[in-house]
Amino acid sequence: MSLVELTQVSKVYRSLTGGDYVAVRDFSLDIRTGEFFCLLGTSGCGKTTVLNMVAGFEAVSSGNLRLGGKPIAGPAADRGVVFQGDDSLYGWLSAQGNVEFGLRMRGIARREREEKARHYLELVGLKGQEHKHPSELSGGMKQRIQIARVLANEPQMLLMDEPFAALDAHTRADMQRELKRICAATGKTVLFITHDIDEAIILADRIGVMHAGPASKLKGIVPVTLSDTERERTHDRFVEVYRQVHEMIRDEVAISLQRAH
Amino acid sequence: MRAAVNGVGGYLVGFASLFLIWHMASTWLLSSVLFPTPWKVFLKAIELAQDGTLWEQASASLGRIASGFAGGSLIGIPVGLAIGSFRPVRRLLEPYTEFLRFIPATALITVAVIWFGIGEGSKIFLIIYTTVFIVIINTAAGVSAVAPNKIRAARSLGAGPGQIFFFVALPATVPYILTGMRLAMANSFVTIVAAELVAANNGLGRMIWDSRMYMLVDQIFVALLVLGLLGFTADRLFRWGIYTFAGRFSPVT
Q: Which range marks the domain in which residue A240 is found?
């Protein structure tokens, strides 16, 4: 069963200087309930535009975008968003305060939200750091707060826009493992944006590869049926999937580089 | 603790060098009754402190600054928040802020005296005037500088527009408001002296003006010294207040 359906969706940005920019055109995709879907594409291919439309931050220009059969009207608590940078965290609140934020806004009683926040902070590995403010925590820990903040709100689905792109390689590998574990534990539907093939194979149930922008759409979908032990960069089956995805995206990388010059 | 001691130590050395240069300049460079040495000024300050004049004049000026500064901030913060939050309000009020902020408070002294008389009214009006626009502009700039992702995150966490204002935009703007207030505090010192020079019954500005008539140069220097010290202390207290009570808003340095 699909949770999110994008049918022939286009997004056009009107420019004041004339010359409209078409980010995606006739983009169609179904995201199934409970799956981890990675949208993979080169920079400027419109993958963040897709996420912003599903999040409700941006309206579709044409086409249909439905969540659980109903059109998406705007952002709501059923879709939690994890951003790439840490500027979405509230610097004046502690880690605990940040994680409680959504629950507080939705009028959940103090006892319950404190408990929930503690539970999810522990789940993301921030036990003992509850009272620290974001400025006192490392980049990886800040992304953990973002993930806990979204999970504590118990949304239907997680939208993650290259959440680990700004982290160093070790922390990123750590966070990927953690996210995989958390998703297995909570069974959330995830739309995860990345430009990193390895990351997509480590995390995804299915990988959607996008054409180079502008006016981009989906080029194809690669199912990833690897077991946890096979999701190692050196494993034969991992390399096999890598080749398959790389084959698909190679030309797009070349096109996008050409267009950038 | 150690950093605090180092900080104080640095200040002591800095201030000592200031007084040393002053002493050398007044002793050798401009050896004249018109440029008293720090020691002479210090003795005069003790004398004025003992007969009570210094406290009287200083507290008169400080009282005016305090009430005008408080009034200006109380008006400026909500107006700045409204300008930063609502485009129609910005369009409506920007002509006022953009026009009036270029008319310095000192240019309004005569008008203020004509309107409010030579007493407290005109001084407090001028300090409110000199405070309010800086606070408005900084507050409004702070509201529009809130990272869009903070707002987006709040919306997808289930916050409504009112909640976003009170729980996201307002706290995110606090550092800007405090910066505006700190700048306004410095302006208040400039304005109060100018206002008292022109028309006042007391205050440090008036003390400078009266001393001039009797060529009491060391008394002028006492007033200048006290102004510097009061301004410095007020600014430090403000900064200390920010760090103690609003440190978690990661304020300006």
A: 2-78+157-260
